[in-house]
């Protein structure tokens, strides 16, 4: 039953005691900014703060909407075919990760289950890579989570360099000139590692018809100062798997005590499910460490990576710090300290949710889609530079065909086609290949979990449409459009975050040879 309410008169409204009425408070007296909607507030008519923290506050709903609207100007991650990074996870995974945002992963005492979940992931990934499970006391495979493969590679290079240095000093030899053998097509994090940790690069150059290292040429570069060899399981440009076993067998044959680190950033979660008989991992005796990106084909949002050593003896003890943090003694080998637990928990979710069967099904579908796209582009007259049928990553690297003798000159290149596709919403990057490849240009499409055959068909149609459009334009028109796109349509042309002091560096492979550092 609803009760009746009396409408009070004016005298009845003032019910505060006299003592309370006399209290005078010196509080903020700013006008309220609340209104009927976010876009009716004063904030909608003002610039968002960009350089200095504002004096006043704004309501949480308005702050959320203003930033959300700003972020809507970003590209659509699902149409970004440049990146290997995961753009889809199930709602349950997202919920678990969101619930762990506030957990500082480094605090093992406070969050022991999160720490144990990392240990489970290391064990699962180590066994996936055939890490030895029988070992002497104090030995056995060991690994850790990282922010991504870049940190994992830094740690692996540090371990290789320190082991080499210790051996040289113990033998009474100089340890001044460490070097590492690697492909000229390495991702930029390898160049960072060699520069930051003062290791000389010995590059195995690609050729116009070979985009990976040659095992013999690689081993021939080894000398007494070589700390290790980097072999890539899925190169950034063409996705091809480098011959780990070939390098391993040559080292064994020549009785060279040089370790191999496998950069399996992209291929580590693909090869075990698509080509399980391929020997690239700890089945090769010279492979001492492997990194893999959980946020690529590990199917987790950025950023999480993993590094595993085949035995603790390959990780020098003096690089590991025992830390008593908030009451718990722990061993730490990382470049950073505090970090959230969310990505590690997301990785664990995927490993147990999908299992080997689920990963195999997803990677098989990606391989089928990549093969379909490859065949379709080949039918359109493109030259395919990547491998098919699981011989490499599920990506398609392609370029325009060479013109036949006497054919009319083509007025556009791969970069012009990439810019045309960008106008259609697709991010399909164009690159200049590694040095010694006659300045080959290429385009690359990364096939990720959310790139379905239906979307693949839409891309093929747009590539054909853009190519037909470019065929109809003269050289001058294309040049004008290219200039307009570079200046006004591409975000890199408008970027203000690159300090002028650091532009056009000349110390990297890109700076020296014009190779494009490709996106991962």
Strand order of the largest sheet: 1-7-6-5-4-2-3
Task: Tell me the structural class.
Answer: alpha/beta
The coarse overall form would be: globular
Identify the quaternary structure here: single chain
- What is the arithmetic mean of pLDDT? 88
Enumerate the spans where pLDDT stays under 50 for 5 or more consecutive residues.
Answer: none
SS field, number of helical segments: 16
Q: Would you count the extended β strands for me?
A: 13
* Residues in helices, as a percent range: 25-40%
Strand count, sense and barrel status of the largest sheet are: 7 strands, mixed
Distance between the termini: 66 Å
Order of helices and strands: HHHHHEHEHEHEHEHEEEEHEEHEEHHHH
Q: Whole-number radius of gyration?
A: 28 Å
Strand content: 5-15%
Summarize this, please?
α6 (149-170) runs parallel beside α7 (188-196), α11 packs across α13 (453-471) and α12 crosses α13.
Task: Kindly describe this structure.
With 520 residues, this protein is α/β, with parallel strands linked by helices. Helices cover 36% and strands 12% of the residues. The protein contains 16 helices and 13 strands. It has helices spanning 10-13, 18-21, 60-71, 91-99, 112-128, 149-170, 188-196, 215-220, 244-253, 271-274, 342-379, 414-423, 453-471, 475-489, 491-494, 509-513, and strands at residues 142-146, 179-183, 200-204, 226-232, 260-263, 287-293, 305-309, 321-325, 328-332, 383-384, 395-399, 430-432, 441-446. The strands form 3 sheets. The protein has a 7-stranded mixed sheet with strand order 1-7-6-5-4-2-3, sandwiched between helices. Helix 5 packs parallel to helix 11 (342-379). The longest helix is centred in the C-terminal third of the chain and has 38 residues, at 342-379. The N and C termini lie far apart (66 Å). The relative contact order is 0.12. The model has no long low-confidence stretch (mean pLDDT 88).
């Amino acid at each position: 039953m609803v009760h009746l309410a009396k409408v009070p008169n004016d005298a009845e409204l003032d019910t505060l005691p006299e003592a309370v009425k006399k209290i005078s408070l010196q509080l903020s007296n700013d006008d309220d900014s609340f209104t009927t909607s976010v876009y009716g507030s004063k904030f909608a008519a003002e610039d968002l703060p960009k350089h200095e923290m504002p004096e006043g506050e704004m309501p949480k709903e308005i702050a959320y909407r203003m930033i959300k609207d700003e972020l809507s100007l970003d590209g659509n991650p699902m149409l970004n075919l440049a990146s290997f990074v995961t753009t889809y996870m199930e709602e349950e995974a997202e919920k678990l990760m969101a619930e762990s945002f506030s957990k500082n992963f480094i605090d093992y005492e406070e969050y022991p289950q999160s720490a144990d979940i990392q240990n489970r992931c290391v064990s699962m990934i180590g066994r996936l890579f055939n890490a030895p499970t029988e070992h002497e006391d104090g030995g056995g495979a060991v690994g850790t989570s990282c922010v991504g493969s870049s940190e994992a590679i830094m740690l692996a290079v540090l371990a290789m360099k320190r082991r080499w240095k210790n051996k040289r000093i113990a033998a009474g030899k100089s340890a001044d000139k460490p070097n590492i053998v690697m492909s000229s097509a390495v991702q930029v994090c390898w160049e960072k590692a060699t520069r930051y940790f003062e290791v000389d690069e010995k590059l195995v150059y690609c050729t116009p018809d070979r985009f990976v290292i040659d095992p013999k040429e690689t081993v021939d570069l080894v000398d007494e100062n070589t700390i290790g060899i980097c072999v890539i399981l899925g190169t950034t440009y063409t996705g091809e798997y480098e011959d780990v076993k070939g390098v391993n067998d040559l080292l064994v044959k020549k009785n060279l005590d040089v370790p191999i680190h496998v950069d399996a950033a992209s291929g580590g979660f693909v090869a075990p499910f698509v080509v399980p008989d391929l020997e690239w991992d700890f089945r090769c005796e010279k492979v001492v460490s492997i990194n893999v990106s959980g946020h690529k084909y590990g199917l987790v949002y950025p950023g999480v990576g993993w590094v595993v050593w085949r035995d603790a003896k390959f990780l020098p003890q003096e690089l590991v710090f025992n830390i008593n943090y908030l009451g718990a003694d722990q061993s730490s080998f990382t470049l950073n300290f505090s970090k959230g637990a969310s990505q590690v928990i997301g990785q664990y979710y995927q490993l147990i949710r999908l299992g080997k069967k689920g990963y195999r099904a997803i990677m098989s579908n990606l391989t089928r889609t990549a093969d379909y796209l490859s065949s379709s582009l080949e039918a359109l007259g493109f030259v395919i530079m990547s491998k098919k049928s699981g011989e490499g990553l599920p990506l398609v690297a392609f370029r325009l065909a060479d013109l036949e003798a006497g054919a009319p000159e083509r007025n556009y290149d791969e970069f012009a086609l990439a810019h045309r596709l960008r106008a259609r919403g697709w991010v399909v990057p164009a690159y200049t290949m590694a040095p010694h490849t006659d300045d080959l240009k290429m385009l690359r499409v990364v096939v990720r979990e959310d790139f379905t055959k239906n979307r693949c068909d839409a891309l093929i149609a747009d590539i054909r449409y853009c190519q037909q459009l470019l065929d109809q334009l003269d050289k001058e028109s294309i040049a004008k459009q290219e200039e307009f796109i570079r200046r006004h349509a591409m975000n890199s042309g408008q970027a203000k975050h690159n300090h002028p002091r650091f532009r056009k560096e000349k110390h990297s492979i890109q700076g020296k040879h014009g190779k494009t550092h490709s996106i991962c």
